[in-house]
TrEMBL record:
Enzyme Commission no: 1.1.1.100
Keyword check for Cell wall biogenesis/degradation: no
Positions in coiled-coil regions: 36-63
Cross-referenced InterPro entries: NAD(P)-bd_dom_sf (IPR036291), SDR_fam (IPR002347)
UniProt KW keywords: Coiled coil, Oxidoreductase
Gene Ontology BP annotations: bile acid metabolic process
Protein name: 3-ketoacyl-(Acyl-carrier-protein) reductase
GO molecular function, one term: 3-oxoacyl-[acyl-carrier-protein] reductase (NADPH) activity
Coiled coil listed as a keyword: yes
NCBIfam families: PRK05653.2-4 (NF004203)
Family designation: Belongs to the short-chain dehydrogenases/reductases (SDR) family.
Amino acid sequence: EKLLQNQVAFVTGAGSGIGKAAAIKLAKNGGKIALVDLHKENVEEVKKQIEAIGSEALVLEANVSQPAEVENCYQKTMDQWGRLDVVFANAGINGEVTPIEDMEPKDWDLTISNNLTSTFLTVKYAIPHLKSKGGSIIITSSINGNRIYKNIGMSAYSTSKIGQMGFGKMAALELAHYRIRVNIICPGAIETNIGENTWRENEKLKKVQVPIEYPEGDQPLEDGPGKPEQVADLVLFLASSQSSHITGSEIYIDGAQSLL
Ligand code: NAD
């Protein structure tokens, strides 16, 4: 029997990177997957890959920072399969990389709503569908919540990522009585399309007088940047009953980058 046999997983940001790898991994392990993303063409492609491995997928084009869109995606998932077991709240953007004094309020708002408000919405609107039998929610934060000095210019991103940690722990507390587990994963640098953290070449950031020593090779485990598939292995573990006693945890997957 596969780990997620007959289960339904809802994955945001499923068109690319970590979300795509997780959707495929969960499907290989028996899950039926609701694929949520801004970019329909990308999730259509992921759906094809999932069907090729013998599972089912649903394409849901939506902006997860919009309450009605998130609620509607869950409704369509329930209409399709009649159940929900796993939620991977993963969609995110880097947003503007610029000093705080140059950060436009609208750019701040975009990153916060896209990364943090979206997480609240994705968790909130899952609860009615999970509460009768429990389930597992996984939130993608980042080492960049705690390890901010390595990423100057990403104030909104860091705020959103550390906000997800606090929110995820509160959700774990509030939802434990429904047997809904909530865990937070904190990847280091992972090879995806999210864009380079371009602070080293960013002209505006030259005026931020932070003396940073950036050692060559900033990852103790010298196996190169992480792969989305490696993060997907952790997502599968947290989604499945193999992690049945784990909730409210913050799990780093970064080759010990966050220790430097
Ligand atoms: P990615 O750009 O490859 O994929 C992110 C996906 O999310 C894209 O398909 C995008 O269209 C989608 N998305 C973004 N905003 C959305 C919205 N409002 N509604 C619906 N879909 C939306 O990036 P990734 O690296 O796979 O990022 C996934 C998560 O991992 C993000 O939360 C990111 O902050 C986090 N993360 C990434 C890294 C890394 O190094 N790549 C490190 C730590 C954390």
